[in-house]
Amino acid sequence: MSSHRGLGVRLPPLLLLLLALLPLAPSAPLAPESGGGEQTGDAGGAEPQDYGQPGQHDVGGRAGDGEDAPLASSLQEKSEEQMRNLRMAMKYLKNLGYTETRNDSSSMVQLPSSIRKMQRFFRLAETGELDAATVAVMKKPRCGVPDVAAYNLFPRKEKWDQEQLTYRILNYTPDLDTRLVDDAFARALALWSAVTPLTFQRLYDGEADIMIMFGRGEHGDGYPFDGKDGLLAHAFPPRSGEGGDSHFDDDEEWSLGEGKVIKTRFGNAEGATCHFPFLFEGVEYTGCTAKGRKDGMLWCSTTADFDTDAKYGFCPSESLMTFGGNGGGKPCKFPFVFLGETYDSCTATGRKDGYRWCSTTEDYDRDKLYGFCPSDAMATSGGNAEGAPCVFPFVFLDDSYDACTQNGRKDGKSWCATTSSFDDDKKWGFCPDAGYSLYLVAAHEFGHALGLEHSQEEEALMFPTYKFTRDNPLTPDDIAGIQYLYGEGKGGKPSQPTKAPVAPPTQAPDTGPKYEVCKDVKVKFDAIAQINGQVYFFKNKMHMRVTHPGSRAGRPRWNTDVWEGLPERVEAAYTEPSSNHTVFFSGTKYWAYAGGKLLPGYPKSVTRLGLPAELPGLDAAFYWSHNKKTYLFAGDKYWRYNEHKKKMDADYPKLIGDYWNGVPDSVDATLAHGGAVYFFKDFYYQKYMDRNLRLNKVGVSLKDWLGC
């Protein structure tokens, strides 16, 4: 193993302690810059363009083409990153039970020991240092219940005495239709009742065993949430008082895990959910749009092709409806009067929880009628627009944009303006992402509410960090734990949980490929890609996935069980971040998928991308976040594709050996992951740090990537 660790410098414990005491130096701004409490680590400000980009060099130090490799990070930037990671780690270790004292000075002395405890729990190399793998795990979204039982703020080892339990939903998130929230919680509880004697009955008033609520920040239990991402939810174990209560952070984007779920109103689709992407007048839309309407109302198609099916509905907005409150679901009435002031839009004024509301009459002071405003279908997070929705088209640096963009940012995040011109108004926010599956997070938290602790099995539902799956999330480890507390279910084979209201993608067959990758010591992979935060390794007709380098690979699955219509063999693949579409190449065609669904109009010829018709196929592909370009490899040549302009850059192809220092003249697969670019050839790989693309490591794929 290389001694060069993920932070660039191996820090001795004493230096770690000193760094912890240093104030953070101001960091170079990303753009658009976030302001006002946005939880991304961006600095304040509002300018979206990147700074200091001239003078870029080619890979391997060659001058000329100018965009293939941005400048290396400065030493100051690396030091700032180390200090940010250190402070994050100390908070993580303290809040999640790995530090035995709440005293800051004592906890710093314990830091290496605390890091080793955390590494041991997650089955990482026990270095006692903040190496890349450790920091990556700490930054993953997760449950807020501590991992270490001996220091658990939510005491464990308790169970309910009765088998008939009750639950009550105290409030709702604006992110999902209330019926979808009800269904998600019911299905999550059904998972546990299917394998135990437990039953769950919903109450609509009074005290229930499991009280469910959404909240933000400090929400009344002494364990505040931390804003978007980070800690998603927490739950208390069985006991009197708050025992069993389950709380969900409403600063998260709650969904069914595969993008915003938008249930339409009115139109002609009878309340069906939006279908993203959809075609309208030959243009593909990945979100609600006002195109084709004079009244500015946002709408969507409920099928893949509006031009053919003409099925549509309106996306939720305060002009159509409210929820909760006492206004009977009526739409907002603008302007309205509250405490003598006039309001032209939803407001959080008068509330401590930050929820946006409006009056459903023109005078709240007189009528006292109100409702909560739904999350706009294109509501933003972060930025400086206080959650205002995207406005399309908008102008940025004199160019017009009809969709979210990553242009102007170094971190690859998609953003939009919330007025028609960013250049004039400087108002912006981050675009909606895939969100977190309320069903999966709730199933995990209800496990705690029933008495389970966190599992060390990475595939288990009760593993601390979030991961999305379409499969039944319960593993033998989860079932063994819950049946240890309550016994097996009555009546033999458990019934299946209630199905989701949205038809799920095709499920994998009961018997997958009989392939043991760790025994194939000279394995060559056909393609490798990062999809939904996990790394997928494609071999013949199947694939395996890992959550991070060195973690145990999941069981093999047939490609077509996940991506219906995909050819038997995948030759190259990558995910385009602005749309989150995964692109697969095989022969002279390419396929694009949103989740497990093939987009309309695919497959297409690779000539549509600007590749030559005589090209028999690609070897590898990856998207490079630093210049927003996609690199395509075939034989000893490579091409560079501009994702923003949707065309191939001029003067390509080029020879790999002329611009990629030390990379083989032909490669099997490539991957951009965790701040590095990996080239795979036969059974080994080469790691290049993607700021300057200097060779950082050579390793064995099976050992370092698939946990063999």
Automatic annotation (TrEMBL):
Binding site for Zn(2+) 1: 219, 221, 234, 247
Record Pfam families: fn2 (PF00040), Hemopexin (PF00045), Peptidase_M10 (PF00413), PG_binding_1 (PF01471)
UniProt repeat feature Hemopexin, residue ranges: 522-566, 567-613, 615-663, 664-708
Binding-site residues for Ca(2+) 1, renumbered to this chain: 175, 250, 252
An annotated Gene Ontology molecular function: zinc ion binding
Keywords: Calcium, Collagen degradation, Disulfide bond, Extracellular matrix, Hydrolase, Metal-binding, Metalloprotease, Protease, Repeat, Secreted, Signal, Zinc, Zymogen
Cofactors (names): Ca(2+); Zn(2+)
UniProt keyword Signal, yes or no: yes
Positions that bind Ca(2+) 2: 209, 243, 245
Motif window: Cysteine switch: 141-148
Sites where the protein binds Ca(2+) 3: 226-227, 231, 249, 252
Modified residues (Phosphotyrosine): 602
Domain Fibronectin type-II: 269-317, 327-375, 385-433
Residues that bind Ca(2+) 5: 528, 573, 621
Binding site for Ca(2+) 4: 526, 668
Region of interest (Disordered), ranges: 30-80, 490-513
Similarity-based family: Belongs to the peptidase M10A family.
Protein known as: 72 kDa type IV collagenase-like
Annotated gene: LOC116956003
